[in-house]
Amino acid sequence: MVLLASCPLSLLTAQQGDDLLRERREYAHWLATAPLSPYALLRIQPVGPGISLGAEPSDIPLPGIGRGMAREEGAQVVLRRDSGRVALPPGRPVPVGTFTLVASGPPGRTVIAAFGPVRHFTPPLWYPPAPALDVTVALQPSGRRDAFRILGPDGTDVEVHEAGFVQPALPGSTVRLRVYRVPGEEADETELLIYFRDGTSGTGSYPAGRFVTLIPAGGGQYRLDFNRARNPFCAYSSAFPCPAPWPGNTLPLRIEAGEQYHAADPHPAP
Amino acid sequence: MKSGLRALLCLLVAAGAGDGLGAQAPANPVGRWSAALDLAGGPLPFQLLVDEHGGLRAGRLCSATDCQAISAIRQEGDSLVFELADYAASIAVVVRGDSLVGRYHNVGRRGPRTIPLRAARGAMPVSSAPATLVGRWDAWFQSGFDATPRVLLIENTPGGAEGTIISNSGDYGRFAGEMKGDTIRMGHFDGSFVYLLTARLDGDTLRGIFHAGLRSQTPFVAVRSTGRRHLTPPTEVTRADSTTPFAFAAPDLEGRTVSSTDARFRGKVVLLDIFGTWCPTCHEAAPLLAELYRDYHARGLEVVGLAFEVAGDSTVDAPQVRRYRDKFGLPFPLLLGGTSDVETVAGLLPGLDGFTAFPTTIFLGRDGRVRRIHAGFYGAATGSAHEALKAEFRREVERLLRKN
Questions:
Q1: Does the N-terminal peptide bond of residue B359 adopt cis geometry, omega within 30 degrees of 0?
Q2: Is B202 helix (H, G, I), strand (E, B) or coil?
Q3: CB contact set of A265 (below 8 Å; sequence gap of 6+)
Q4: Cα separation of A69 and B25, whole Å?
Q5: What would the pLDDT profile of A97-122 be if each residue is shown by its tens digit?
Q6: Between A34, A76, A188, which is nearest B344 by CB?
Q7: CA distance B148 to B239
Q8: Can you give the C-alpha Rg of chain B in angstroms?
C-alpha cells in the first residue's frame, strides 16, 4: 500500500480490475485442473464405525481399486486392504491408485473425501465487475469469546472464532455482517470470512449464500470486495454438504457482483 | 532512496498491468535479484539468486542467510518458471532487462494462492539497524482476545540487519529487510511460509503487525527485554482447556474402548500419562506412576497410560505395550493412541494444546478438569531434580485427592 502511494490513481484502478480478472481466470483454471478441485470430488463420507472403499459395492466406490475398510484407529483413519495398510493423517492428501483420499474433521466425526479425475467442469459465471461494491469497512469487535465449529466453504468442519461485525455502507442497508476468523492453510494464517445472503440469493446467485474474505487495508480498515464473493463448493457438486446460512447475514439489496449461479445447470455428483 | 524505490516499483506495476508487452528476446536471469512479494500489508523483501553452471541454471530464495533451493527453472513462453516442488508451488516471472515481474503461485486446498512478485537486479541493499532498534524485545501478539508472547531479536551482522522471531515452540527462521530510523520491515519467505513483520518505534514501545500469508495480520506491541523470562520453555507450553472435563477415549490392549466418561473415572483424580514404549524417559517415569497408583488408588486415584507407538497398528503395538506393562508391573490400564506424531496426539486429544514432549502427564481433578500438565520428566540421571519432581508429583496428587 505504501509503495503504491506514489502511483497515479487511474493506474491503480486499472491494476485492481486487472487483478480481479486474473484471479477469476486462475480460479477457473484451479477448478478445472487441481487434484482437489471440487469438480474432482467423488464422495464425502463419515467414517463412523467403519466404511468400505474400492470396487463396487462399496460405501465409496473406487473402480479398479481392491476393496478395503477405513476406520478411525486412535487419532487417525486407517485404510486396510489385502495389499496392506494405509494411514490417512488428518488433512493430508493420500494417493490411492488414481484417486486421492483426504481425511478431516474431529475424532469421532472424521470424514473421508475421495477425489478422482475431473469429469465435468462448468466455468464459474461472474457478474461484471462492480467497483461500487468494493467497499471499505471497519471491524467492530464481538463480545463472543468461545471457539465453535462451522461447516467451511469446502464442506469440511473447522473451528472458528467470531471476529466481530462489519457494516458495509450500501444503499438502504443497515445490516451488520457477522465475521468469523477461520484457520488459513498454513501455520499462523487466518482469514476473516463472511458468509452472506442478499437479494440475488436464489435469483442469480447461489441460494444458500456466498463467501467473501476481508482484505486488510491498514489502520483497522478492511476491503470488503463483493466482486470476490464465491460460491460454497456445494454449488459445484452435490457431493458436498452445504453450509447453513449464518444468522443475521442477509443484506436487503441485490449484490450484483461476484459469482453467479444458474440452477438450470445442475451439477450432479459423478 | 525510499522514493526512488517507490518510483521503480510503480513502473514495475505499470509494466505488469500491460500483459504481454514483450516481443523481446528473453533476458538473462542469472545474478542476484532484490525481490518483494506484494502482500496486503506491503512488500515482503527477500533475495532471489540465479546461477548458471555448464548451461544448467540453479536458484535459491533467501531471507538473510536462510536459503531454500529452487528445484527446477524452465522457460515457458515469455515467462521464466521457478519450481518449488517440495511445496507444490512455483514462481513465474517475465524478465525485462533489470526487472522481474510475476507471481508466486501455490495450488492450495481451497483455491489457488497467488501473490504478486517483483524484483530489481542487484543485491538487497545492506541495511544497518540503528542502536535504538538493535537488541531483544519482549512482544505480545494479539489475536482476537488472546495475546501470545514472542521475542524479537534485532541484530547487525556482516550481511546487514537481521531479525528473528521466537515463539514458545520455536522460531520462524531468519528475517531480512530494512531497519531504518524508527521503522522495521523484515520478511521471511521460503517458497511456502510467507511472513512479514512491520513495526515502528513509538517512545519506548515497538508497535507493529505480523503478516502471515497474503491476508493474515496480527498486531503486536513489544518493549525492551528486561532480562526477565518472557517465553515459556517447551516443557511448560502444553496447555489445555480447563473449563470443561478433559476427554479421552482409546482402545485398551484387548481392543475395548476406555473413555474418560467411564464409571471408573467418575469423581476420581486421574493421571493421564502420554507415553511411548520407544521413549527412554517414559521408562524412567513408569515406576513412579505405578508407585503413585499403589499408594493412592484406595483414596481415589486412577492412572491411565496412553501409548503412541511407531507402527500405529494394534497387532504390532499391543504386544509391545503388553511387554512394557509387564516389565514395570503397571497395575493400571494402558491404551493404544496410534502413531507417535504430534498430529496424532493432537487429533486424539483435541483438548490439549501445544503437545511437544514424551512423556506428558496430565493431572485431572475429581471433576475431570485439567489441573496441571507436566511435559517431559527428569530421569534418575538428573539426581536431585528427579527426586524433587517425584516429590512434586506426590504432593500434587495428595492436594487433588483432598479436593472434592
A1: yes
A2: strand
A3: A122
A4: 57
A5: 889 999 888 778 889 999 998 878 89
A6: A76
A7: 13
A8: 27
Question: Which three cell numbers, joined as nine digits, stand for B183?
Answer: 521503522
**Grid cell locating B184:** 522495521
**Cβ-based neighbour number of residue A162 at 10 Å:** 19
A159-172 pLDDT tens trace: 899 999 999 999 99
How would you write the pLDDT of chain B (404 residues) with one tens digit per residue?
Answer: 333 333 333 333 333 333 334 445 567 889 999 999 999 888 999 999 999 998 889 999 998 887 888 989 999 998 999 998 766 789 999 999 899 999 999 887 788 889 999 999 998 888 899 999 999 999 999 876 678 888 898 999 888 899 988 776 556 778 998 998 999 999 999 887 899 999 999 999 999 999 988 888 889 999 999 888 887 754 455 677 777 899 999 999 999 999 999 999 999 999 999 998 877 678 889 999 999 999 999 999 999 999 998 767 788 789 889 989 998 999 999 999 987 777 788 888 888 887 877 789 999 999 998 888 888 787 776 666 678 889 989 999 998 998 76
Closest approach of chain A CAs to the CA of B46, in angstroms? 16
Is residue B214 a contact partner of residue B108, using CB atoms and an 8 Å limit?
A: no
Q: Which of residues 311-330 of B touch A (CB under 8 A)?
A: 312-314
CA–CA gap between residue B193 and residue A139 (Å, rounded): 26
Q: Which residues of B touch A163 (CB under 8 A)?
A: 144
- Chain B residue whose CA is closest to A233: B110
Measured between beta carbons, the chain B residues lying within 8 angstroms of A153 are 110
Q: Is A164 in a helix, a strand, or coil?
A: strand
Task: Tell which residue, A86, A87, A92, A90, has the closest CA to residue A106.
Answer: A90
> Cβ–Cβ of B108/A185 closer than 8 Å?
yes
Strand partners, B340: none
3-state helix, strand, coil in chain A (%, to 5): 15, 35, 45
pTM of the predicted model as reported, rounded to 2 decimal places = 0.67
Q: Rounded to whole angstroms, how far apart are CA atoms B331 and B347?
A: 27
What CA–CA distance (Å, rounded) separates B73 from B91?
Answer: 9
Q: How far is CA B351 from the centre of its chain?
A: 19
Note whether B145 contacts A191, CB cutoff 8 Å: no
Cell of B360: 506428558
The end-to-end CA distance of chain A, in Å, is 45
Give me B203's grid cell. 517512545
CA distance B335 to B312: 12
- Cell (9 digits) for A266: 445442475
Give the separation between CA B340 and CA B312, rounded to whole angstroms.
8
Strand partners, B86: none
Instruction: Give the number of other Cβ atoms within 10 Å of residue A61's Cβ.
Output: 16
The span from the CA of A37 to the CA of B155, in Å, is 45
Identify the residue whose cell numbers are 527412554: B280
Single out the residue of A77, A113, A51, A107 nearest to residue A237, CA to CA. Answer: A113
Counting Cβ atoms within 10 Å, is residue B319 exposed (0-12), middle (13-18) or buried (19+)?
Answer: exposed
Cell of A259: 459469482
- Strand A51-54 relative to strand A60-61, pairing: parallel
User: What is the distance between the alpha carbons of residues A30 and A52, in angstroms, rounded to a whole number?
Assistant: 30
**Residue B147 Cα, gap to closest chain A Cα (Å):** 13
| Spatial CB neighbours of B70, under 8 Å, sequence gap ≥ 6 | B58, B59, B60, B61, B82, B83, B84, B91, B191
Task: Count Cβ atoms below 10 Å from residue A109 Cβ, excluding itself.
Answer: 13
B98 DSSP assignment: T
CB B99 within 8 A of CB B15: yes
